[in-house]
# Entry
Amino acid sequence: MKATQVFSSHFKEVWEEWELRGVVFLSLTLQILLICMGNRRKYIRFSWFWGLIWLAYLMADPVAIYALGIITNKLTKINGHSVDANTELNAFWAPFLLLHLGGPDTITAYALEDNELWLRHSLSLVTQTGVTFYIFLMAWTGPNISILAIVIILAGFVKYGERVYVLWAASSEQFRDSIPDPPPNYSKIVEQHKLMKAEGYSVTPHEVIEVSDMIMENNVNGADLFSPEENPDQKQIYKHRQGELLAARGLVNIFQRLFADLLLSFEDRDTSLSLLKDKNFRTAFAIIEIELGIMYDLLYTKAKAIHTRWGFARRIFGLVSTCIVLILFSEIEDQQYSTADLYMTFILLAVAIFLEIYALAVLLFSDRTACWLIKRKKLTILDLINWLRPLTKRRRWSDHMAQFSLLSFAFKEKHLPCHRILECLHIDEIVEKPLYKHHKKVTDDMKKLIVNHIKEMQSPCAAKATWDVNKSEHKEHLQWTMELEFDQTILIWHIATELLYGLENDKNLHHKAKPGKYLSRYMLYILVMHPEMLPTGIGRIKFRETYIEAMKFFDGLKSFKADEDPDDEASSFDNEEDIGGYRKYAKRCAGFCTSAWQHIKKRKKRKLDITSAFNQLQEQVNTELDLLVARGEKSKYVLFHGCRLAWQLRQIENGIMEGDIVGETWVKILCDAAIKCKAKYHAQQLRRGGELLTHVWLMMAHFGLTDHYQIAHAPAIAELIVH
# Structure
């Protein structure tokens, strides 16, 4: 008992001495983590990375507020006594914690919903600034540290206020209101018309459509907006990238309206087409990437505030003031302070300076700064920035798409030993789905196929656009797959594509077949992991039904193979009879464990080859039956119809056209899904490395293929020509 008391007393002393230091150090660590990694979310797709950022984001504010509470409690316990040197130094940390509450420039919102909490943060701004000022007054001992604290308090208040402003500006309602469609001044025009006519002038109305000069320039400051040569040198690529930046910057008002779910005019469409229709697929995708990168910055970072004169001045002020405080603090006698507290104070100052320098670097290396420099012909500064961080090597999204195979998931290639336990807890799918997800790079062949398809859809002869399912010789056999619900169409074509190409090694697969295979697995990933991005339906339910059907089939094959294995024997516990009492219970438990172990051993012995399983799956389907079965059965037996579709595709010209049909069909499915997805779901995916679906949606919107274009004419300037 005494030993316990001694240990408890010693632990309490250590905790009281190091609690504040530990919490402040944790707050510093979280700030460094957030500012260095917060902006990387737009091109990193790893789940563990998202989890790390999520944890740091959730902890950052509570940890800083908790540290302020500890300091307040320390000062409250003094009860009118004089403040010692160490307590005064601890109180000096409070303004830095207010700086931490201001948050880093690279992440203000983890999700879109965080922007809606701006009012809560405004209340926190008032209360935590009040707490910091209270600590400052309670710990006032003289003109030394206390004067320095005023500078940091001011910087912290401004930084926290900036965070509240950015959250407010990115909230859905304010974001929509910030990009209104200004109506033309008709009253002034009518008044001028009446006055001129009354004076006897002949007045003729004349309309001039207003188009941005940036958009109309095809070559700005040597920045070629058209497609580069086949083998351009680095200088040409650099100039070309400048053109892409200007093109994306010129479209900023258009894509902001798209994400705000506002209507666009056909003049907006013509403006977008003037930039994109003559570009090759690489340039078109590069412009879209830059646009989405800017959109990510507006929604999830402090870009709205930092890309202004005020924002630049605020960062210069923060950096200079912190450096001055560091210099002045270094001149103060330090013999009276605890060594640990003194080191912690210098760390706080050093990290504060680092955060400001990093924020300035983020500002200078951003795409919007590059656009600003190009437009104002500050090319010498741009060349220096490009030398430090080349425009051609900046990552704006992951350039990868997730892959998920239904048949591989049902076959359980990556079977977990604890699968039975997970099944009992009904969490087997939740735990195992990530194991079957992987990523593939979005290839140039795929980008080219997508851009060509969108251009065909936009062309006046779109009705004659080439899509193999609608070709006369194939329509009769394949059109039925497009008459089903959208989620069923995805599942049927996915199963068929898997049976055609799923077992092929990517190196051996024909280049025309790769886009179809990758898009098939990508669209199933969207259906399973992000069904909200697809048209409203029962996609998850239909997936589960098909998954269970396929799993039962594969399990049946494995059981059949197990029956043929002479080494497999039933557990001896199953043959025992009349076991009663506790012995019966113990035997059953032991029997369950033995059965599970035998199941694992038998699985290793009789591992069914997935190639054989796929082949037997197709053999089980009677492909000679009439394909025109009842609609009810079409929706019920998705697996059955997927196998039949695979057989049909193999019969088309002996597979010569097979790759073209599958690839172009999946591009059409991808485009249909992109159009029907709401803007807010596209915006949500920007923080997860981006989705190919979002890039396709924005490109289709620029080509006038979405339902945003419902205004006949854009705002125009009406001129009165007086004769």
